Amino acid sequence: xxxxxxxxxxxxxxxxxxxxxxxxxxxxxxxxxxxxxxxxxxxxxxxxxxxxxxxxxxxxxxxxxxxxxxxxxxxxxxxxxxxxxxxxxxxxxxxxxxxxxxxxxxxxxxxxxxxxxxxxxxxxxxxxxxxxxxxxxxxxxxxxxxxxxxxxxxxxxxxxxxxxxxxxxxxxxxxxxxxxxxxxxxxxxxxxxxxxxxxxxxxxxxxxxxxxxxxxxxxxxxxxxxxxxxxxxxxxxxxxxxxxxxxxxxxxxxxxxxxxxxxxxxxxxxxxxxxxxxxxxxxxxxxxxxxxxxxxxxxxxxxxxxxxxxxxxxxxxxxxxxxxxxxxxxxxxxxxxxxxxxxxxxxxxxxxxxxxxxxxxxx
Length: 363
Ligand code: NDP
Prior knowledge:
The chain has helices at residues 17-28, 63-76, 142-145, 161-170, 190-197, 295-313; strands spanning 4-13, 34-37, 50-51, 61-62, 80-83, 88-90, 96-99, 103-112, 116-118, 138-139, 153-157, 176-180, 202-205, 208-216, 220-228, 234-238, 241-244, 248-250, 281-283, 318-319, 325-326, 332-333, 339-341, 347-349.
């Protein structure tokens, strides 16, 4: 049950590059944003090592150090932070309502920068202990858990950049890393593929599905039951650790039913803005971007979302996913820009010298 009510002009959910960039912009616009985040602030960059492609760091920077800088910059302009877990949202009207165990958070505008989480294969033995061996040899984060696999033979599942990065990173500790991929071609970028192919400690097993993780709590992971799609044979592949690196899923489940999502769960935004289908709710970063998914693009969309929120609060029109533009008062400019519909329903041509009521909506 909510106990304390907090009311803010701008509430940002998420503290990765998107959320914190939105916070920096909103704070500098004097909107006193509140960033709501979970128990692991900083987003996915806090579980990576070298970040070499974030502009401004010629020698690269460690992911956690980069996120500390983001946070310091957001705090410097007055951003507040609240660590909590949002259990439910109500986006039916402004202020939007976010429920946590201890708070009711009311937001005049909401910026969703909730990011994405690792995906799992959904096979027996993979779940967290006691349902599976998660925490006892199964992981989805090499930088978090790699250290525990010194001198061990490890399998990484996946064929994208994440899998190549995890496999390469794990060779620091492992005696051997085998990448098991369901196809005979990697999806990873050329540079990441070449790095992995050039690494003596990394082997590849192609056209192979992983069907079960084998082992016990005491012994940890002892092997995988695998299936060769070309030969149709099933066999046991011995290993002592298993890392799942098959991509990520946007953290948008609590918005289902309110916001328009794509089939994977990414929040749909306007294209020309970060507006969602609900005026006053904006989305940015990996919760909204299924394509680029980079720290720098997340930061860019965070900036856009904050500017959109600021415009919206200033009663300026913001483009929506339908192509309309809408203000905080509910005044709408139609996609063709020829008709302006006031919140009270009055229809006007979008030309200053025409009289009200002369045009019809949808013309
Ligand atoms: P991707 O979606 O690119 O790759 C996922 C991989 O996992 C694919 O090879 C896919 O196989 C495989 N996979 C997915 N589902 C299953 C399943 N159920 N069973 C077996 N295999 C499965 O995700 P990534 O996380 O690798 O990358 C996401 C984005 O982040 C990319 O744009 C990438 O470039 C970027 N990135 C960049 C990094 C960097 O620059 N340092 C590091 C990490 C990520 P299939 O190929 O058959 O579809």
